[in-house]
Amino acid sequence: MFSQTNTADSGLPILLERYKPIPRQAIDPACLSLAKQWLSTCQNGHRRCDEKFDTAGPSRLVELRGDVIKLVLNPEESTRGSYVALSHCWGGSQPLKTTLKSLAGFREQIPANDLPRTFSDAIYITRALGFSHIWIDSLCIVQDDALDWEQQSSKMASIYSNAELVLAGVSAGSANEGFLRKPRQSCERTISLGAKGSRTSFTYRIVPDSHDFIEEPLYKRGWTLQERLCARRFLAYGNWEMSWECKESSCCEHHGNNLDSDLNSQLEGSFGARMDTTNPQAFAQLWSTRVVYPYCRRLLTEKKDTPIAISALAARFHSQYQGTYLAGLWKEDLCKTLLWFSKPPGCRSSFFAPTWSWMSLELPHAIDFDPTVMSNHDAEETLVYNVQTEVTPSTTNPYGPVSSGTIHLVGILISASLEAGPSPEGLWEGTKLSTLRHDVSGTISYIDTPIVRTDVRLMDGTEDSTTKRKEKQEDSSGGPYPVMLLPIFRFSWGVTGLLLGRSATCVGAYERIGMFDYLAEVKFESMRKDYKACDMTLV
């Protein structure tokens, strides 16, 4: 709460600071002054925020020197990192972009009158903060050149990590909206109190709920997650306020100083600081909870971009932890991160991804990970061993899409039957597992997608009935569904693992169809005596 008058004159205690209104538009000079203050404080006092990802930089930048705006190739500012990178929503068809036809002309001049409002706003702020170069994806990547797009998109980690500042038009849902002149959401109220015959006005601010921030247009888009989390410094212009995030501080107009830690966590902020301080043993939890969890709930215009739009973060993780990336998971913690689940069931992705990866489901969708496993509870026993992997990228980007992905391991396969809930298309509440010889009641099942029964050919040439993920055009079949249980971890409270079906496309291999949890330890100990460990392949 803030005082609008002199509390000493009113007879009220001097407890409150004087009221300073938050500007109704971000174009207000007070906002620019505050942004300059945040940037200067960070540049002059935050040693950790000066650390760059590597020496590589963008191949092109938009140069803003003088009155001419133009595209420049391999500028010195690229390797020095003295440029701003824009994070923004395209909003459907992009009104201005570099193509093979326009490339030569843009190297001479980009007409200022042709710039969409979001670009104009970003250029205004870039110049006002003292920078002469900005990276804008639609202008700095040749949009109709597949090779250039592949090469530049694979450098996103360097582009956003090395930028001196990432400028985010958070409130703009398209390139045409802009973010500086939009009226802001009002969150201030005034009350009047009386004492000793006089009245004093007080203004209080209603702090926006974290949901209001998460619902900002930019934070709904899949591509922009890595643009934010890779940034060393992130200046955001939202519907409510302007905010700042870097490795050493988080500030905003409403709070003034540091953001509330819970709110900061929900906004995925201060990610760079967490990467710097997280030990290698806990990095799977950081990847699962701070990257995969929010990413899977965001929108992508092109579903095939799912692996690419997160590849910059994978590159950052590899740089930090030297892990082996496997289509959205990490080899060093593969057994843990295999235990993701989908609730409710989703749909198969339209592009190829191995079934053991969460990328095999179409996004946006609610993907989560077994909380007990991710909270670093020590398992009493790991039930799979000799784990080997083979993943083949389909492009030059080692963190992008893949053409194949297999896991070879040794473990126990338990034959079981799955009874569906009210409808194979529904939430699968009430699904039940059973085996011929053992009671597995109480075990929880999570199905990745709707499933169907099918017949597959075995290695010996015979056929067997199994269960697979349902194609969109396939009719659902009734249960029960023959499945295999692959136990992965044994805890004091029970066993958790994967639900598998035989592969119809790779003879002798298995495909993931879901996950099971809370298989009672006592029941499992009696079951495992009836099964021998065997070699298997997951595809």
TrEMBL record:
<protein>
    <recommendedName>
        <fullName>Heterokaryon incompatibility domain-containing protein</fullName>
    </recommendedName>
</protein>
<feature type="compositionally biased region" description="Basic and acidic residues">
    <location>
        <begin position="458"/>
        <end position="475"/>
    </location>
</feature>
<feature type="domain" description="Heterokaryon incompatibility">
    <location>
        <begin position="83"/>
        <end position="227"/>
    </location>
</feature>
<dbReference type="Pfam" id="PF06985">
    <property type="entry name" value="HET"/>
</dbReference>
<feature type="region of interest" description="Disordered">
    <location>
        <begin position="458"/>
        <end position="478"/>
    </location>
</feature>
<dbReference type="InterPro" id="IPR010730">
    <property type="entry name" value="HET"/>
</dbReference>
